[in-house]
Amino acid sequence: MVSSVAHCHSKHVVHRDLKPENFVFENRSPDAKLKLIDFGLATIMASPSSTFRTICGSPSYVAPEILYQRPYTYKVDVWSLGVIIYILLAGYPPFEAKDEKELFHRIKHEPVRMEGKEWDAISSEAKHFLASLLEKDPRKRPSCEECLQHPWIEKGQYILEDKEHHHLEHTVKNLKQFNARRHWHAAVAGVTAMNRMARLAHLHHHVLRSVSDTDHNSTSPSTEEDKTNKEEEKDGNNKSTSPQDSKVQNPAKEGLETSKETLTSSLKTKKDPAADDNKANVKHMPDEKEPFCSCVVS
User: What is the Cα–Cα distance from 132 to 124, expressed in whole angstroms?
Assistant: First the structure.
């Protein structure tokens, strides 16, 4: 994982949405390559010191500087890597909360804790590595190239070549529970979204049906009314033909016309030269050609 992100940074690409779901194996073979996917929020940096302002990322993996809405660098990827590695070693994320407001508060202010039975089997080098990645000050965080030179990462290659496997029983148990919670929250969010869309579709259908019924009634007069209208046309000299008398009262149509006039008036106001003069008082933001995505989108 660290090598893939280091490669992206060497090509001046910042991913900005690193999470376990975005690391996939090429196939099901034991020696399958691990690949990084989903570059929908990625951006290009002109230099290692390039900064960005777009608020994006997944809530549990977003870096503190993004939550503070400060200019940030490629170091946000290093933070996200730290969160992922923390989950792989402990079986749960470093910061958990019931809602996103509390979660963001903990990411910004609470220290990273490595306590519990699952951490007894974790080496001090691994803990030191995690502490450096999850440093809240991005200036103190190492780059991915520096991460590859860390003793724990270098020693990991020899551990993989060893025939003996080191199982983390407590971590595996925690991972199963964490994965179950993740699927549960995703299912709840999916059902909530479907219910919301169903309510909107029902409301939309109801409004269209009401407008259609009123239009039909206003354009289809009865036979008696038709005869009366013809008689009034023949005897036009004796009766006044005021537009107000012949106007059909249609509340739905009047509401639509009022909304249309309001929208047209609003658009004219935006095109007003006086409004352009106020642009001088607006704080200038750097021109960053990239998509905007709120952090609260999981």
Answer: 12
Q: Residue 279 — left, alpha, or beta (φ > 0 → left; ψ -120 to 50 → alpha)?
A: alpha
The sign one gets for the Cα dihedral 63, 65, 68, 71 is negative
The whole model's pTM is what?
Answer: 0.62
The pLDDT tens digits of the residues spanning 201-254 come to 778 777 887 777 776 666 555 555 555 555 555 555 554 444 444 444 555 555
* Active site annotation includes 17: yes
**What residues make up the domain containing 20?**
2-165
How confident is the model over 164-213, as pLDDT tens digits? 556 677 777 877 877 766 655 555 556 666 777 777 777 877 788 777 77
Q: Which among 17, 31, 99, 226 is annotated as catalytic?
A: 17
Burial class (CB in 10 A: 0-12, 13-18, 19+), 280: exposed
Q: Answer whether 14's CB lies under 8 Å from 45's CB.
A: yes
DSSP class of 265:
H
Q: Distance (Å, rounded) from C-alpha 47 to C-alpha 122? A: 36
CATH classification at residue 100 = 1.10.510.10
Task: Say if 46 falls within a structural domain.
Answer: yes
